[in-house]
Design a protein that fits this description.
Blueprint lengths: L5 H25 L5 E7 L4 E8 L6 H31 L6 H6 L8 H9 L8 H9 L2 H4 L8 H14 L5 E9 L11 E2 L12 E6 L11 E11 L2 E2 L4 H23 L2
Antiparallel strand pairs: 1-2, 2-5, 3-6, 4-5, 6-7
Amino acid sequence: MGDVPRSVQLKLGRVDKHMETLDESIKAFLKPKPYSAMRVLEGDGRDHVLIWDDYVEPPDDFGLIAGDAIHNLRSSLDHMAVELARAGATAQNVAMTAKEIAGIQFPIVLFEDDFAKQLGRGRLKYVEPAAQAFIESSQPYRMTPKMPAWNNLYLVGELDNADKHRLLTTAGLAPGVIKDNWPSTLNETPLRTPEISLAPERGAEIGRFSFATPQREVDVPVDFKWGFTLLIGQTWHVHDIRFIIGNYISTVRWLVNELSRNFLP
């Protein structure tokens, strides 16, 4: 049973530090209560419109810290691949060249053919066949064949590539509207949000409840919670950014632990 390589441990340690910083930053930002909302009744009380009362733009740092955490996650996998290659080369009594080491990379792909292409490019050169097979079994097209592009491993790779080359990792406000002990006959009333996303400024609509008959505000109380989520491609995720990245961390930690335990001396 092999230990997780030191370089991988250090990369994952940086991930933990970034997540601690992100959590502290979010708590500090929310402490002075930068957001508030109010309700306006329309249509004699049939429409309860929720609008911004106060809004402060979230700091860019939230996305930047998240991007750094994701980058270290992706890097830990590449370091893992190099350590597996070194172990394989040692077993074969071969000295790896600098060029070979530079070509090693942990493949993350959507299709089986692309994995074969990665092997052809030397991404897992000298990695023993059983370890290569395990890495192949962890690919998005194997783990989540119906939705490989939403696989945790694939998103780690995509978010890291985008952050490095194209777009900064972006965190955005995710307002939550909580129904507080509504009558059972009204509890299933959905919150309708604007089809066109308006600038979150004072007076802009967050959403509305539309009832068949007029309702008093006191009978359908709501509370608000404020959190932050992650922009993935062109889609805002529905979960808290810390929860999302926490899932990515769990996936990567499981991979490196299994690879270390089973394929390193």
